[in-house]
Specification:
heterodimer, A: alpha/beta, Rossmann fold, 8-stranded mixed beta sheet, 6-stranded antiparallel beta sheet, 57% helix, elongated, B: mainly alpha, 0% strand
């Protein structure tokens, strides 16, 4: 299958007619389509699957709104409006056109779900014909079960190997590799043919054979009932298993949450203690400042006062106090304390006057010494205040640093606890036990039903042997006996073929996945496809199952898709070279992928970009601007036959217009417009 | 059932009629694979069987 052209007409975000030429050359198998979020990359991916299968992927919202919103709004009530997608492709030398259309007369404000009409046209040597049952023809070319391998979203790729999807994937591989047809022959058509032949022994035929046929039919009916019961039990056990798994996950989340919550509680105690200490230090600082802050303003003044007083003392300018008053009284009275007269100019008077000059000085000296001492205390007190304030500030800073550290730790814990449904552990444990008990009961019943089936198979086999070995007389019965034996021989052969081919496909696919994965993943992991077709990842340096991240799951998914694609192509090529009647399966298919890098980091993006063009002969890749930087664009751009930009027209003029640079040239990426829509524009290479 | 045997081993073990019927059934199954319940397929196998084991 080789895609040639995609034409959209009023399809979802695409207004009017938009066309995508998809032809590629063998050396440049890639088509690159760039578009911003919401521009229509996913819509474009879904345009293929909608046209081919009439289905959207689960992540597409408002699936009923197939007709472009603007086209719908513009259409007056009572008028006809339509939307369509046309896919043109080539398959095994024939040209096909698949056109799916919805048409309606507008009667309501909102769109309602419409039934689409499908027209498939097949052309050979210029002669076209409408295919009567178009959907069947498409199913024959590319069965819908395979669409997950060829039309997919890289961001959702990891889901391919989780939960219920494993069975779907296994079935799709069987379809692709031609195993499904063998299974159908074994399970339905050959047993039916055998029964039909057995029943043809008429009432005049061999009575023994008739009885054996009746017995076999009875046993097979019983087997059908048991099989039905088995399926129901599988479903029930699966449902219980999902419940157990959900409870386990919740328990695990709670288990993880518990130590974090304990840690958070401890942090809270430490935080409260630190906040109290900080308040205490701040109070101490405030108290110090209230009581002694004046000291901060006396720096220098005390020394000035001391210097001044020292000078005065030296100059004897300091007042002497009360003793001088006493001498003044003696001089005024003219009588000394010793009883001697003190006339003017006398020796005694002059001596007393000299005494008066120095009188009180010792007192001054004493006081002076006291003052000096106090001034020194002041300096010490100031230094002490400074030291205490510094200590307070250092303490506060240290406490605040610890508070910030605890805040950061608490914030980390809060982030880890986000989204955890903290439930009662005991209740969860009870729920898990209850569903596990139910699951075990269902599994026990399942085992019993299975052994019942084995017994029935043995009984049927015994009846078949009796049928084959029964000695019959009439020719007609003998002939039917031979025919039944032939069908049974073929049935046994198909069972052996299925076992051989299943293992062959598994081994080939296992090797391919290993090879593709090894080209992309840098970690010491090796994928392994189990006999049950489940994909596991082994850490070969540790020899244990690897803990897969979302990124590794995406690489695994991509490797798997690449491997399936390569294997299908190889099988197809082998079939072309050696036409073999019993060789089935294979084919050449395009890959259309949205967001191929999912959430991977740049190193992986580069490796994937390098590997993508090697995956298949045609690969249509839908990328955003952020996914197409540097090496990514170099690798993909070098392998591209064509490139397109999904130019978004937006009505919000507050948002900036934008361009995307491809090979050094800027192309409009986001432009202002009259209404929101997207236009496909080809990039000139 | 061993998986070391090859497709050729299995085919070689078959009678000439069974070998032909295997090819026919495989072809019919492939042709009808896209149909969920092909009504006529069983009849076609019966017819092919009758042709081969008269």
């Amino acid at each position: 299958m080789k895609l040639l052209k995609l034409t959209l007409d009023n399809f979802r975000v695409f207004y009017g007619t938009q066309q995508l030429d998809l032809e590629v050359t063998p050396d440049k198998p890639a088509i690159l389509i760039f578009g911003m979020n919401g521009a229509g990359k996913t819509t474009l991916l879904n345009a293929f699957t909608w046209a081919l299968y009439g289905a959207f992927s689960d992540d597409v919202e408002h699936q009923e709104r197939v007709i472009n919103d603007h086209a719908w709004t513009q259409t007056p009530f009572g008028e006809v409006v339509s939307a369509s997608v046309k896919v043109e492709f080539e398959h095994e030398g024939l040209l096909f056109t698949v056109l799916r259309t919805v048409t309606t007369t507008k009667k309501t404000e909102e769109q309602v779900a419409l039934t689409a009409k499908l027209i498939v046209t097949e052309s050979e040597h210029g002669v076209s014909a409408t295919v009567t049952n178009g959907q069947d023809r498409i199913q024959k070319i590319l069965p819908e079960g395979l669409r997950q391998f060829f039309f997919f979203n890289g961001e959702r790729m990891e889901r391919m190997f989780t939960g219920d999807r494993t069975d779907e994937v296994k079935q799709a591989i069987k379809t692709l590799m031609g195993l499904e047809e063998i299974e159908r022959a074994i399970a339905t058509h050959l047993p039916n043919a055998s029964r039909k032949l057995s029943r043809q022994i008429g009432s005049n035929g061999d009575g023994r054979l008739q009885a054996l046929t009746a017995e076999q039919e009875r046993l097979e009916q019983h087997k059908l009932d048991v099989h039905k019961q088995l399926l129901q039990l599988s479903e029930t056990a699966g449902g219980y298993e999902r419940e157990v798994e959900a409870a386990n996950q919740a328990l695990l989340a709670n288990g993880k949450a518990a130590p974090l919550q304990r840690q958070r509680a401890k942090l809270k105690v430490r935080l409260d203690d630190l906040v109290a200490k900080r308040a205490e230090r701040q109070e101490k600082k405030r108290d110090l400042l209230a009581r002694s802050s004046f000291l901060a303003f006396t720096g220098g003044i005390d020394n000035q006062v001391l210097d001044l007083a020292e000078g005065m003392r030296k100059r004897r300018e300091l007042p002497a106090g009360i003793q001088r008053d006493y001498i003044d009284g003696l001089l005024e009275d003219g009588l000394c304390m010793c009883g001697r007269d003190l006339p003017e100019g006398s020796q005694a008077r002059m001596a007393l006057e000299e005494r008066r000059y120095n009188a009180g000085l010792a007192d001054v000296e004493t006081r002076w010494m006291y003052l000096r001492g106090k001034a020194a205390d002041l300096t010490l007190a100031r230094a002490d205040l400074l030291a205490k304030l510094r200590e307070c500030v250092a303490d506060i800073e240290e406490i605040e640093s610890s508070i910030r550290q605890i805040d950061a730790e608490e914030s980390d814990i809060a982030r880890e606890l986000e989204g955890v449904d903290v439930m009662d552990v005991q209740r969860l444990e009870e729920r898990r036990k209850e569903f596990d008990r139910k699951r075990l009961d269902a599994l026990q019943q399942h085992r019993e039903a299975q052994s019942q089936l084995t017994e029935l198979d043995e009984q049927i086999e015994k009846v078949r042997r009796q049928f084959h070995s029964a000695r019959v007389q009439d020719e007609e019965s003998k002939r039917i006996q031979r025919q039944v034996a032939l069908v049974d021989e073929v049935l046994t052969a198909f069972q052996r073929i299925l076992a051989v081919k299943t293992e062959e496909v598994r081994q080939q696919l296992d090797q391919k996945v290993k090879s593709v994965f090894g080209r992309i993943c840098i970690k010491p992991f090796t994928p392994h496809l189990t006999p049950a077709f489940a994909l596991e990842l082994v850490n070969h340096s540790a020899g244990v199952a690897a803990a897969r991240s979302t990124g590794e799951n995406q690489i695994l998914g991509l490797s798997f898709v690449g491997a399936v694609s390569e294997l299908a192509k190889e099988t197809h090529d082998r079939k072309q070279k050696t036409p073999d009647a019993v060789l089935g399966g294979g084919g050449v298919y395009p890959v259309v992928m949205d967001a191929p890098f999912g959430n991977l980091d740049v190193a992986y993006q580069n490796d994937i970009a390098e590997s993508l063009p090697k995956l298949t002969s045609q690969i249509v890749t839908l990328l955003s601007k952020s996914q197409s930087r540097g090496m990514v664009l170099d690798h993909l751009g070098g392998a591209a036959s064509r490139m397109y930009v999904l130019r978004s027209y937006i009505t919000n003029t507050d948002a900036d217009e934008d361009t995307i640079t491809i090979h050094g040239r800027a192309y409009p990426y986001v432009s202002h417009g009259d209404f929101n829509h997207t236009v496909l524009e080809e990039v000139t290479l | 059932m061993g998986t070391t045997e090859s497709l050729k081993d299995i085919m070689d073990d078959l009678s000439p009629e069974a070998r032909k019927l295997v090819a026919k059934v495989w072809q019919l199954e492939r042709e009808h694979l896209h149909v969920k319940n092909p009504t006529l397929l069983t009849d076609e196998i019966v017819r092919a069987t009758k042709e081969l084991a008269k």
